[in-house]
Amino acid sequence: MPFEFEVPETLSKKNLEDGTVFAPKFDAKGLIMAVTTEHGSKDLLMVAYMNKQALSLTLETGIVHYYSRSRQSLWKKGETSGEMQQLIEMRTDCDQDVLLLNVEQTGRGAACHTGQKSCFYRKVRVSEGKAELQKIEGNQIFDPTKVY
């Protein structure tokens, strides 16, 4: 049975920010940002979006679902790769327009479709007035050409 969510606009500012009613604030496209961290290490794994169906399925099953903006469809994380995310804890920010997911990354431990542990596998370096990307070593867990 899908979860029904309270509409944020029906709550007072005080109730929205300090109350106990979960009223996720979806944007004009029906999406809410989800920031995902790994339970054990607290590493930032990824940032994605959820629609009501993805959020409801995540709460019902404990397996994280997202909404793929590029494919315009529901996305059960790891369904193809085996790199699923088991929800440990979900939080929301003060005005309930962002979710923070704390997950146990299953499979080999790669959250990114590129085979990296985290989608944040490159850092920005400034050298001689130019910004460049540098890969963080030891982050690749699998070869995506062999998985997808």
Number of helices: 2
Q: What string, H for helix and E for strand, traces the elements in order?
A: HEEHEEEEEE
Helix content: 10-25%
Kindly report how far apart the N and C termini lie.
32 Å
* DSSP strand count: 8
Q: Give Rg in angstroms.
A: 17 Å
CATH superfamily of the domain at 8-109: Phosphoribosyl-AMP cyclohydrolase
Low-confidence stretches: none
Characterization of the model:
The longest helix is centred in the middle third of the chain and has 10 residues, at 52-61. The chain is 11% helix and 34% strand. Strands 2-1-6-5 form a 4-stranded mixed beta sheet, with helices on one face. It has a two-stranded antiparallel ribbon with strand order 3-4. A two-stranded antiparallel sheet has the order 7-8. It starts with 12 loop residues before the first helix and ends in a 13-residue tail after the last strand. The radius of gyration is 17 Å and the shape is globular. The protein has 2 helices and 8 strands; from the N terminus they run H-E-E-H-E-E-E-E-E-E. With 148 residues, it is mostly beta strands. It has a domain at 8-109: Phosphoribosyl-AMP cyclohydrolase (Ubiquitin-like (UB roll), Roll), CATH 3.10.20.810.
